[in-house]
Amino acid sequence: MKHARDFRVVALGGGVGASQVMTGLREYTRHQTGVIAVTDSGRSTGVVRSALNVPAPGDLRNALVTLSEADPVLKDLFQHRLAGTRLDQFNGVAFGNLFLAALAQMTGSFEHAVLEMNRILKPSANVLPVTLSNTHLCAELVDGSVRYEEVSVRGTEKPAIRRVYLRDDGVEAYGPVVEALREADLITIGPGSLFTTVIACLIVPGIREAIAEARANGATTVYVCNTTTQPGQTDGFTLSDHVAEVVGYLGTGNLDYTLVNTGVPAAHVVDRHRREGLNLMTLSAAELRRINDLGVEVVATSLIETGTEARALWNKVDTVRHDPARVGAELSSLMAVIADARVAERSGEQTTVVPGAPNVTTATGQSFA
What we know:
This protein has 369 residues and is of the alpha/beta class.
């Protein structure tokens, strides 16, 4: 497999999904920028937001630590959750969230706090908030009712989400994020919670326009699709439903590819997730056609981790995660194929960017016509 190297990457998403992508691409390029959602309002992040009036610090903290090349003790410190019988609402709060909020108070701005966190933790990518605005995510549901703030938007046992939007007027994308997008060779979107992380980034004014401008300059956009549905957000969704939502918010013609997992975990893992409301999504010939009809090409292979043990996560549900190495290898290979296709095009040769398109062959040899 041929791999491209030293291309400029911008990864949009949350503290886990975008970090997985950037971790996988570290082997191929050091030119990476992570653009992280800041509208989370639950758990540890929600407590710090409410008490100290800052944009959501949790996903930023997690991305910075995941990509950090600093001392392991320092990394563990920022992930450490306070525990004590007299901490009240701060029991379980991640120290890194408090540190980032304290830095914002000390330096006078959330922007300076994030820059200092990048300096202290030395991540392999430049990790930035999608916006500096302390705004909240809202959702209109299919029954016409509205949910305010992210923790309610992702709540279970409610009607399906019709659309999401930001609470406040005047929100704008962070300037360095717009600059990074305009200069990118590859823009990845996801994986992560579809509405509360992925689309929460895309709806920030200025992001969609910067991505369109980047594509006009030759950038490639890839949606790294989730492996399972998520209770409260994508119950009953298929792969093509996920892609359709991203295309809807990004704009028709602005998404080039979707990276789709075809790997299947052990049966007991699938059953465990199903009991928690997370259903593994599969790629069929019909699904492939639906995605192609959206103007998006499919790159399909096994992308999941091989581990089967359930992870104990703080106030979160475990899911089938992507393997960063596999994701990085597929993306760098895709960039190499695109580069070769452009060279061939300039020389007058005819070529296909993805071998076999619009048919997709998985790593197991299964073909979708």
